[in-house]
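Let's do one together. I've listed all components of the complex below, 234 residues spread over two lines.
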Amino acid sequence: AQKVTQAQTEISVVEKEDVTLDCVYETRDTTYYLFWYKQPPSGELVFLIRRNSFDEQNEISGRYSWNFQKSTSSFNFTITASQVVDSAVYFCALSEARGISNFGNEKLTFGTGTRLTIIP
Amino acid sequence: DARVTQTPRHKVTEMGQEVTMRCQPILGHNTVFWYRQTMMQGLELLAYFRNRAPLDDSGMPKDRFSAEMPDATLATLKIQPSEPRDSAVYFCASGSYTEDSPLHFGNGTRLTVT
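Okay, and this is what the predicted structure of the assembly comes out as:
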């Protein structure tokens, strides 16, 4: 069975500080996908990133960066120079690959989310 | 931008009434998911379809919930009869099994059963 653990239930930081959200996963699959989604106060789920298990390169997108380490089964998310607009609940998720070509569009197992509050 | 469209956005109903939620997946996406979000259970999968065929509905209470895809542009989730414990936000998501397009979620239907 797949499992995603986000141990940090809530985090508060002052604006412009860096913050890292932790995600640890468990799976018996050799191929899988990892995701991060953002849920702002308005409630929608916004896709942030998808990573497959063969690609351990870290990724940076503006102020966002992700650190994928298979050795520790972690996929952590860092926001640099946080802004108030980053306040949201962030979900890490895992899906099996069933062959790497399905682009991760299998059922997702979500973590419980981390509520991030950026204090102005 | 292509979007997954869910209707209604909000629904308040009395216990025992039938509730129907609708989802229009992104054009060309062949995989559709229904998720439910509650404070206690978080985000949980109810059912999903590929090419309109149900693949997994093990997360759905079978006695009162049903999910269908009458055509490629419409997915429905019905609850009959509804109960207060069904109060939640129901999300639809769509994705492609053949194109490099990540899973996208609709804005959700917030259901309140009184």
